[in-house]
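Re: the 581-residue chain
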Amino acid sequence: MDIYVGIDIGGTWIKGAFVRENFFTGDAPQTGLGFTVKKVRSPLSANSNPQLLVEVLNDLIEKLNIKPSEIKAIGISTAGIVDYAGTKVIKSAPHLDALKNEGWKVEVEQKLRCKACLINDADAAAIGLAELGYLKGNKTIGIMPVGTGLGFSVWKNGRRWRPGKSYPLLGSIDTPGGRYDSIASVSKLAALEKKDGDLTKVLSHPSSKNEKERYIRNLVKIINSTAILYSLDEVFVCGGLAGGVHAAGFPMEDLLNEYLQKAPDELSKPVKATIAREGNQLQLLGAIALAKGELIAFNNKRVPDYEALKTEIPYKKEIRLEEMPTGNIIEVLWKSEQEAGALLKGSLAIMEVVVDESVRRVNDGGRIIYVRSGTSGRIATMDAVEIPCTYGFPEESIIGLIAGGISDAAIEIESDFEEDASAVPEMLLLNINSKDIVIGISASGAAYYVQSALAFAKARGALSVQIQAALQDMDLPFCDHVIPLLSGNEVVAGSTRMKAGTATKKTLNFLSSAIMIKLGKVAGSYMVDVACINNKLVERAQGILKILFDIDKEEAMTLLLEADMDLNRAIRNIKMNKRKI
């Protein structure tokens, strides 16, 4: 039976675990963790080469008592800044220098004849938490592995949150009392046990009370500072500290939350802290899930023939745009854009299928998830952010992912091959399930970021839909349906922000609007769940009530106020009072 291995490279120990294929049952891995963790002391140093890392991993696999021939994929979790594609460490402590060269990955894959991938340990812990169902809802959660140092990752409504495409390097913050890495380090706390540095003994023994109290209060300060910086609702503490706390039965979670109740003025409410019972196993679960997901994506990858893509061929080869009068240029652009809309008629039938299937899944609790790359993909951002306020659809139920990260999508485009990287980590953080609808947008159809997301979603049973410029002759195993834009050649060859972008916007308009209508968000031609969040929308809500029920503006406002400015509730209240439309 196929085996998937997770490795966590810590400052002192390198830990490993494995699961068999049947571990992944249903929509997600089983609840709870049943795997055995083995560890070896890390021999890595500033002078280590990739070969030493391969040897250590080989020793750990022997200790796990599994056959290398059974291993299908390995996920490796480590501290440090990992590149977007998960191939190497960019910055780290000196002992991880061996991971700064992609050679380690090649060595591992050749030696063990399987796929390998790399991920930051805080992100791996976040994936582990998501797999177990802890990360959900429209909130912002900090994931804080605490061991030799302090790791950190931010989860915001299903996504990694990295403004400026940068890791939230919490451990590197320097204060008069030292760096957070040092202040939070459990190694110092464990050192209070002079004999063997056993953290469990330190926490379970009544001695060192003052030192433990000081450590907890320092951790509270770190959590509150982090909550201010990232507007956190919750924090999950994991890693070696979490493992030691639960092994010792030490009430650190209660103490943390007691102190956190005295929140600083900058916080609107106290942040909640949870000490994850799974401890270091979260990183291993995250690494294992990533290994499985990346293998699915890799096996379903398809590369189109770029030379055959119509979007790469000029609209009219004989045109010399730079020599044309301005009016003629604009006329050519206008004509081509009209064609982009008209040609979509050939895809309306498949849109109907996608809408009806999407409505069924949303009614069953599913989410609509857009995964996109490039300029045409950014158009989907408008759709994702407008649907909640236009139709009162829950923000956590329509989510957008984009290559390079969502936080800066509106102000910058991918700059470092992000669309060629995998979206599997982001999909894992969303805990995709069979109720969800995942719509990928890639004009060329070639973006691996989109393909990988769809392949993973399909494997989890979600509805997987690709929107691309044209139908491909090749089989596309990574998705259930393809909606071709049929937009044809671009006036400026390759510029899919033009005709393909227009067709993309129209397609998303059709899909999302039809889904909302079928969900009962429209009465006649009027939206009935519009969010009254500004003067314009309040005016719109008043106008809708006036038209639907033949009442004046003042009465409409009174009814809205009685319904707490909830238009749908106001409509229901009117209907319950037997008013006629």
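The chain has four domains: 3-120+283-294, 133-277, 304-518, 528-576.
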